[in-house]
Prior knowledge:
By secondary structure, the chain is of the alpha/beta class. The chain is elongated, with a radius of gyration of 32 Å. The chain is built from 17 helices and 7 strands.
Amino acid sequence: MAKITPIRVTEQFEHFLEELKESFWGDLYGKTREAWKKFWEAQSERDSYLRAGWYDRVEAAERRDYRNGYYQRDFVTRFGTIRLRIARARGRSFLPAGLKKFQRRAEEVALLIREAFLRGISTRQVGRIVATWTGEPVSAQTVSKLTRELDAAVEQFHRAPLKDEWVYLFLDGVSLRVRRPAGRQRVQMLVAYGVRADGSRELLAFQRSRGESQAAWEGLLQNLYERGLKGNHLALIITDGCPGLAAAIQVVYPRVLHQRCWVHKMRNILEKVRKRDREAVKADAQAIDQAPNLAEARQAFQAFAQRWRADYPRVVRQLERDLPELLSFLSFPPALRRQLRTTNLIERVFVEVRRRTRPMVCFVNVDSVDRIIYSIFHRFNLEWRNRTLRIFTQAA
């Protein structure tokens, strides 16, 4: 039997195939676009409306209207931009009936525009991206108009009912810049992240505010309560240590244990000590939060206080004041303590928020903040539907 020698695929051959594909699909899309153009332009109703063709003599009493030329209208579709000549009379235009239901932009193109914007691409850059597909750029105003369609979804997210099945609640805020009439200002986004006993999780709510005051946090917590999270199964609320948030928890969920984040607390401690003492202070403070039980944690604090009270009395007093809320996590199974002693779970979400919003530099208005945050949270919630936190699942 003759030996078959395999064909060696060279770079030139691959390049030829790519050109062939581009030529084929380019011709196909071009012919399809021309076919659509001819079809719709042939659907003029003007002659039947006027009851007369070109050069027909019509009595003045019988004449309904006069021809008034044509105007052009672009329809952006997946086959590119189709520019049609639409007939018109002095009293009305004759947009084909089928086009009235045909969207100005195909749903695929509108989806591409919204998705590109929500990925953090500026409105001007979105227009250029669409141009690579449709052959014509889309204005920044058009992109903004399409993204405003998300407002209904944002409103639905804020009002969605919640089941009272959440066991752990992580609360924290992220700061974003917004362009205002008085100049660029920072807007605080308050966020609630819930975890069930089986490890399933969800971003439950977000709310814009000027800061992290007690009133602002009470507004977010009241929203959770009114939507159904009554707190009957809520075992622990983990926060960054914001005083306003701690006060709000006492108003809305006074019976739930409160855990302050050790990462934030450690950062605050080290900011107040001399550089030469930081490593030693950090090691002694870590001995507290890494203790195996509450008794040993208190002993570690006594050792910390005895060593550093003379040099840093204010640090010791503040740590002693906050100690009960810093050690709440020790009431839970050892396997969960690492997850429950910090707000790292919600901080990972904020990393994605900052990454996605960084290309925007500054939001044009507060509504655009809500749209982008909603899209990021919605995507996370979809990804997490079949992905539980394994440690919580095993502990359950």
